[in-house]
Design goal:
single chain; Rossmann fold; five-stranded parallel beta sheet; 19 strands; ligase; Flavin_trans-like; metal ion binding; EC 6.3.2.5; decarboxylase
């Protein structure tokens, strides 16, 4: 579980740091927060503590009940210096918002509070997100400080352009939105994009096979898992295309979405794009059967009588047909949504029958996981064995699946850089 240390300075944009923290935790990261005294005038420490489940530190003089560790980690036997312990255990240190004053301190090596002392002691990736009035941001002193930090290897996020803190002000200086902050941190954690340049094709959602003009045979898949995979792959640098079957979720920028309805349409869309992809992840719930004929209008009860008999025929096995034409180096990942005993055994069988690199098995009989739920619990089945991902957010499950893809791609000579 990646550990993010978040430093929050005093500025009106500090409220965005709360949403960043929520998103980071949802994505499976562990977060500790340090604030300047001025930051507490905008967002209270109790808000961050309530979200992270960890105490917020403001000065070097206050004891840390967690002794410098992140939530879930074992406590050390002694209490270390907080500004050293936090950055030693963090995988990345993000300062957002970073005020002009803090940027000046960082550029000149000043360490007069816990936030700047931690930055000076930081040997992990340091990311700063400036946020301030446009006149302050464009001032030569601020620009010189940013240039100094960049020259030292600090990642400086570009502020946005738009309305600023005071009424009527407009210009450069807006803190990037929380999803952008998280994407930047995850890009740094992934080494600048562990999937950089990889072409990833993902199917998501559930197909609908028409009975008549208003009725269909479908399933309960919402597309959350597929969309989480797409956004996680995009954050790691991949070029992502999603074939979305009846998904009403928000769309992330930078991802190509192809909307389809039926299994046949999904098969066609995937087939058209398969040869160009490096990784295929079939997360969609594709109907195994469809009505042999769909009625052109709406079937009326007085037309059908007491019973309505439908003749169902098999749909195309999309994943098997694509696996038969895979080229060397392509990675194929399937999903198996099962119910009750035998789920894992079926996943192993599917792995072998369809000649896949991995199968993600989830038992949808469990409460609060699977279809149309925020959480999931899965087993990632490969030729090397099974990796259990306990119940967690679908964003965290997506990260675990991609980690598995990365390990497989290294052995298959897929062009991961």
């Amino acid at each position: 579980m990646p550990r993010i240390l978040l430093g929050v300075c005093g500025g009106i944009a500090a409220y965005k740091a709360l949403e960043f923290t929520r998103l980071a935790l949802k994505a499976g990261h562990s977060v500790r927060v340090v604030q300047t005294e001025a930051a507490t005038r905008f967002v209270g420490p109790a808000s961050f503590a309530g979200i992270t489940g960890a105490p917020v530190l403001i000065t070097e003089w206050e004891p840390d009940p967690l002794r410098g560790v992140f939530p879930g980690d074992p406590l050390p036997e002694h209490a270390p210096l907080s500004h050293l312990a936090l950055v030693e255990r963090a995988d990345a240190y993000l300062i957002a918002p970073a005020t002009a004053e803090t940027l000046a301190k960082l550029a000149n090596g000043l360490a007069d509070n816990l936030l700047t002392a931690a930055a000076l002691a930081c040997k992990r990736p340091l990311i700063v997100a400036p946020a301030m009035n446009n006149a302050m941001y464009e001032h030569p002193a601020t620009q010189a400080n940013l240039a100094t930090l960049r020259a030292r290897g600090v990642t400086v996020l570009e502020p946005g352009v738009g309305p600023l803190g005071s009424p009527g002000e407009f210009g450069v200086g807006r803190l990037p939105e929380p999803p952008e902050l998280l994407a930047a941190v995850e890009d740094v954690l992934a080494g600048g994009g562990a999937l950089d340049g990889l072409r990833v094709l993902i199917s998501a959602g559930g197909t609908r096979e028409p009975i008549d003009a208003v009725r269909f045979i479908g399933n309960r898949s919402s597309g959350r898992m597929g969309f989480a995979l797409a956004e996680a792959a995009k954050r790691r640098g991949a070029n992502v295309t999603v074939v979305a079957a009846n998904v009403s979720l928000p769309r992330a920028p930078g991802i190509e979405y192809v909307d389809v309805t039926t299994a046949a349409q999904l098969a066609d869309a995937c087939s058209e794009r398969f040869d160009a992809c490096d990784v295929l992840i079939m997360a969609a719930a594709v109907a195994d059967y469809r009505p042999e004929e769909a009625h052109g209008g709406k079937l009326k009860k007085d037309q059908t009588g007491a019973e309505l008999n439908l003749r169902l025929v098999r749909t195309t096995d999309v994943l098997s047909s694509l696996a038969d034409r895979r080229r060397p180096g392509q990675l194929l990942v399937g999903f198996a949504a099962e119910h009750g005993d035998g789920a894992l055994a079926y996943g192993r069988s599917k792995l072998e029958r369809k000649k896949l690199d991995a199968v993600v098995v989830n038992d949808v009989s469990g409460a609060g996981i699977g279809f149309d739920a925020a959480d999931n619990e899965v087993w990632i089945v490969t030729a090397d064995g099974e990796h259990h991902v306990p119940k967690t957010s679908k964003d965290a499950v997506a990260a675990a699946i991609l980690d598995s893809v990365l390990s497989r791609s290294s052995s298959n000579d897929t062009k991961v850089r």
